[in-house]
């Protein structure tokens, strides 16, 4: 009998004497399976859920959940865990999107890196279209926004949109129990 085992069920070999297919021993599943998708869907709902509670919801033990989550982190499926903050409650009363259309084909080497090091830059996206980059910033006031814009205008034309409200934030990916294929 020959089976391909995943990292989270490698104990089957020693308990049941099952032969391992392949020359390198245990094969690690590289693509998220239906159980992984169920775990990810649960984590999107509550990222603070314990491994025991996650396991109860998807039918695994807490150690099996921990191992699967480590594998998903290693694969880059899970890129981190974070708390969502209200910028206004912390003194960042202006949220804006700044679009940058570079002079020429691309901004000078290293200039985008310098912009992303500005603490108020929350996100940066390299895009196609009329603009090359889109930045999301949170600043205390319009004066600080003007300073940031000043550092960008040497690189290209900027267009700024100040956020009035955000009716939809933090939507979850539509993960079903089945992997996309």
UniProtKB/TrEMBL annotation:
The HTH asnC-type domain sits at 32-93
Q: Which Gene Ontology MF annotations are present?
A: sequence-specific DNA binding
Q: GO cellular-component terms in the record? A: cytosol
Keywords on record: DNA-binding, Transcription, Transcription regulation
Which InterPro entries does the record match to this protein? Answer: ArsR-like_HTH, AsnC-type_HTH_dom, Dimeric_a/b-barrel, Tscrpt_reg_AsnC-like, Tscrpt_reg_AsnC/Lrp_C, Tscrpt_reg_HTH_AsnC-type_CS, WH-like_DNA-bd_sf, WH_DNA-bd_sf
* Source taxon at top rank: Bacteria
Residue spans crossing the bilayer: none
- Keyword Iron in annotation: no
> An example of a Gene Ontology BP annotation on this entry?
response to amino acid
* Pfam annotation, one family: AsnC_trans_reg
Q: What is this protein called?
A: Lrp/AsnC family transcriptional regulator
- Native organism: Saccharopolyspora elongata
